[in-house]
Amino acid sequence: MTPPVLRTRADLRAATRPWQRAGERIGVVPTMGALHDGHLSLVGAAKATCDRVVATIFVNPKQFNNASDLEKYPRDEATDAGRLERFAVDVLYVPHPEEMYPDSFATGVSVAGLTDVMEGTHRPGHFDGVTTVVTKLFLQTSATDAFFGEKDFQQLQVVRRMAADLDIPVTVHGCPTIREIDGLAMSSRNLLLSDRARTAAPRLHEEMESIAEGVSQGADFSTLRARAVTRLQAAGFTQIDYLEIRANDDLALLDRPTRPARLFAAAWLAGVRLIDNIAV
Ligand code: AMP
């Protein structure tokens, strides 16, 4: 059976109140839909950890810094509901934009520091949109636990900071990146790739793995990086927004992984922006 779809805060509250009263653990999995196995792995983790699971689908206009990106974003609620079927989630919450942002809406949640780099620099306003909607989803669902993907590692750290700073009593769980067989990180945006671009797309992860291996053997990162950029350009990538090593906790830029760190990348291929990150 497909999960019950709720569209208003009032209906959601009516569903969650008895769970809350019973002291149950309520897991929320926020998504923008076009669900793939990456999203479903978060749902699986939530089911394994919590008594109740609320999956949410909301293509959040506030986190798009580009109107055509918002317009092109893939939407298919019926297919998404079908994909959730085998997980038996308790509720699929799909609010309308007016339910989330009525005309009078005037408040924003903003995290400093962690948002000054990478996605924050290249997508102005993006993280304010994310933290604002995630705060609302945490409060609306009465979640005790929330599940986010390491695919968006910076977002995961920003959400953790936000929940801690605002004393929101939600445990934020980070889940590993799920990949296609050829290494490409699963993403709703992969649906926008042409056949030709889809063939070239796994090169990003391949080059990242090769950098990670070189770094682990003590090679110089900037040399490895320059070689990877040349190869990616030859494979059809038009612009590399960033390709850098940063510390896991504060996202400080490193020239070698002297503490727990990841290699982060964002690059454009045939008009689609791909992001990825791996441990180094
Ligand atoms: P999105 O629908 O792209 O906003 O993603 C919703 C959630 O799914 C976020 O927490 C993402 O980090 C997570 N996610 C997206 N792609 C993947 C993936 N390939 N593996 C694991 N989690 C993912």
How would you explain this protein's 3D organization?
It is a single chain. This protein is α/β, with parallel strands linked by helices and 280 residues long. It has two domains: 5-175, HUPs (Rossmann fold), CATH 3.40.50; 188-279, Pantoate--beta-alanine Ligase, Chain: A,domain 2. The chain is 40% helix and 20% strand. It is built from eleven helices and ten strands. The protein has helices spanning 9-21, 37-49, 67-72, 77-84, 97-100, 119-122, 126-141, 153-165, 195-200, 203-216, 221-234, and strands at 5-6, 26-31, 52-57, 91-93, 145-149, 171-175, 237-247, 253-254, 261-269, 272-279. It has a six-stranded parallel sheet with strand order 1-4-3-2-5-6, sandwiched between helices. The protein has a four-stranded antiparallel sheet with strand order 8-7-9-10. Strand 2 (26-31), helix 2 and strand 3 (52-57) form a beta-alpha-beta unit. Helix 7 crosses helix 8 and helix 10 runs antiparallel to helix 11 (221-234). The longest helix has 16 residues, at 126-141. 39% of the residues are buried. The mean pLDDT is 97. The structure holds adenosine monophosphate. Residues 31-32, 38-39, 41-42, 148-149, 151-152, 175, 177-178, 185-188 line the site of adenosine monophosphate.
